[in-house]
Amino acid sequence: MKFLDEYRDAESARKLGSAIARVTTRRWTIMEVCGGQTHAIVKYGIDRLLPDNLELVHGPGCPVCVTSLEMLDRAHAIASQPQVIFCSFGDMLRVPGSRGDLLQLKSQGSDVRVVYSPLDAVNLAAANPGQRVVFFAIGFETTAPANAMAVWLAKRRGLSNFSVLVSHVLVPPAMTAILQATGNRVQAFLGPGHVCTVMGYTEYEPIVRDFHVPIVITGFEPLDMLEGVLRAVKQLEDGRAELENPYSRVVRREGNPHARRLVDEVFQVCDRKWRGIGLIPRSGYKIRASYGAFDAEQIFAVDALEAQESSLCISGAILQGQKKPHECPAFGRQCTPQTPLGATMVSAEGACAAYHAHGRHLYDDRTAECTVPQA
């Protein structure tokens, strides 16, 4: 398929891998930020095309994975109440909270429903005026416009029985926190292409300047990833720190101005706790006071709930690029997709789920051959 197969061509991938090997003379560590990028790397064996002195580590770019345990418990508390229809994307239903997951709650009789758009939840509220419909609004900046649109539309339709439980997180503050963390190994970033499609990349320019770290905005196909790695390595080898955008077929510097205006109308920046990482200042969105009638945390008075992470799960270190999934003692043993200890094992974009799905727990981390498909 044109515009897809051309970014999965095996011979072109091998040429890029060879080019990366030629320019890499020192040991470097590069983080891909987005969970979709992590899955592409593992699925196609992109990391196995790279020289041994070049390591890719996996970042916190899986919104399901970083949704805090407290927020999951708040979702559980709301969904268990009578006359509530709790709506969520399917990837949140099996994420474990301290009280179990939403799928278990559904099996016990709570009205938990999978929707494919927040607008589905708005329509449910219109069709069920005697019940309270709550949508679990998680995600990075990528999903914020659609969730903001749902709130905006519900207000204009006068749907007083609709609300959202907001757990949005923002990428640039997380990248800054990683660079400031004790034990940080990240020397360059492959930037999140989907987030930048919405927000642009002006917020990343101060990170490049202040930390002297290269950022290359990258797509999600094998050749996108390899091109991003090549550009990042060239900068590192030259001692440069610049922001590059080879994903220009999708991303513009200013992003999508219409989407950004809608997000700014409905949401405002706030501090946010990230699962396994902790509180990161100004790293999330919450509902503005002018739309406070649609804030489920306030309506159901669940904002004070606290929770304790599993002592066995090292997802925080994995999400910060300090550990790989197979380095966790519980990986593939106590923690599996059927019995997950943390969200990184059950999420469709989680690093642990990617390693398990593609058998990285069954063999040495650098031995398998590249699986970039033949064109």
List the topology elements.
Elements: H1 10-23, E1 28-34, H2 35-44, E2 54-61, H3 63-66, H4 69-79, E3 84-88, H5 102-107, E4 111-114, H6 118-127, E5 132-139, H7 144-156, E6 162-169, H8 171-180, E7 188-192, H9 193-199, H10 205-211, E8 215-218, H11 222-238, E9 243-244, H12 257-266, E10 267-274, E11 278-287, H13 296-299, H14 315-319, H15 343-346, H16 351-357
Parallel strand pairs: 1-2, 1-7, 3-4, 3-5, 5-6, 7-8, 8-9
Antiparallel strand pairs: 6-11, 10-11
Summarize the structure.
The protein is α/β, with parallel strands linked by helices and 375 residues long.
Describe what this molecule looks like in 3D:
With 375 residues, this protein is α/β, with parallel strands linked by helices. It has two domains: 1-314, Rossmann fold (3-Layer(aba) Sandwich); 315-357, no CATH class. Helix content is 37%, strand content 18%. It has helices at 10-23, 35-44, 63-66, 69-79, 102-107, 118-127, 144-156, 171-180, 193-199, 205-211, 222-238, 257-266, 296-299, 315-319, 343-346, 351-357; strands at residues 28-34, 54-61, 84-88, 111-114, 132-139, 162-169, 188-192, 215-218, 243-244, 267-274, 278-287. The strands form two sheets. Strands 4-3-5-6-11-10 form a six-stranded mixed β-sheet, sandwiched between helices. A five-stranded parallel β-sheet has the order 2-1-7-8-9. Strand 5, helix 7 (144-156) and strand 6 (162-169) form a beta-alpha-beta unit. The radius of gyration is 21 Å and the shape is globular. The relative contact order is 0.18.
